[in-house]
Fold this sequence. Notes:
Rossmann fold; Alpha-Beta Plaits; six-stranded parallel beta sheet; globular
Amino acid sequence: MKNFYIIDFDSTFTQVEALDELVRISLKDHPESERIYKEIEDLTNAAMEGRLSFRESLSGRVKLLHANQEHLKLLVSRLKKKVSASFSRNRAFFKKHADDVLIVSGGFKEFITPVVLPYGIKQENIYANTFQFDEDGNIIGYDEENPLSMEGGKVKLLRELNLQGNIYGIGDGYSDFQLKESGLIQKFYAYTENISRKSVTEKADHITPSFDEFLYVNKLPSAISYPKNRILCLIVGNVPEEAINVLKKDGFSIRHKDTFEEKYVADVGMLLLGDGETVPDSVLERAVKLKTLGYLGNSRLQLSHDIATEMGIVVFDDYKNNPRNVKFIPKRMADFINNGDTHLSGNFPNLQLPKVKDAHRLIHIHSNVPGIMAQINQVYARHNINILGQFLRTNPQIGYVITDVSAQYDSQVLKELKEIDHTIKFRVLY
Length: 430
């Protein structure tokens, strides 16, 4: 059966609630702007958590806006920069599934349409409220006959549309969950990349911290091979909040602990350590999923770079104690995970790479012994893989090769690359 994807706009497709942003713009110089903004924010949250009817919330917020068409233009400009990161990087999905994706929102077409159209979403698949204006372009109300302005509006709309197929709902609020409650959709995915509401997540079929997660669990094509929210990023010791925020903002699953607890050793994918923290050899040797390690200080006396290299773990440290490295070290870690960059690593051959569109990037880390590159390229040749770019760096211990290939290939290719003798680590980056 055909699949349909019903996607919310505020705090889902975008990182923010648009009406909250609009009041920030329209009341910029108003003496009571903070009080009014707080009132609008409270009305938003009350509706999203199911404590107030949507109609009451919407009416209350619109009355407080004091906005006009010029303010809306500024809002659209701001919202275009606030599209959720995982939606933004999966633009190709929306273009490919233009007939299947519906934006269904209690927000307003005047600001939703110009934000989502560039993603390939069809105008006729955008369902939202519409403002009413006076002759001077001031917002004076909204179309109260629109089902999306009413309590249970998304349910009313979906009943009218009578879509024939499997329907999946993605959103952050109570009105999105109501679709599942009504029995009109197969599954409801609580979207938590921007905000997590307990009243919604506890009733969801699945909590999806990013759109990558939704695509991954439903085996749909994604811009990245593995959702970043599934990569455990362990922070240990005295690490400043600004360093943690670099990784948190990128969407990794963060745990901050005083010590490197044994229960995390087997599953940790990224490790950021405060100055003075040590990692025993026996622990490092068992951290089989660890891809990169950041150290806010000189790591050479605190952990074995040789073991890290043998395990295919890229180390970034701060042996000069540069204050800027509080942010720089976690950013280097994220750049390695996101793009394969090893630039300024303390133990790996250094590579800084361009991002290639319409390609898959494959990372192969192997012992530096003769003949490995020949074997890698024989695999590509046997499967008629079109190589778009290939980058190789070595040091006395290891070789690090990045291959950008055309997106079409058999999964057997990946199996054969992993099975090459002396392979240390292999992964598809995107």
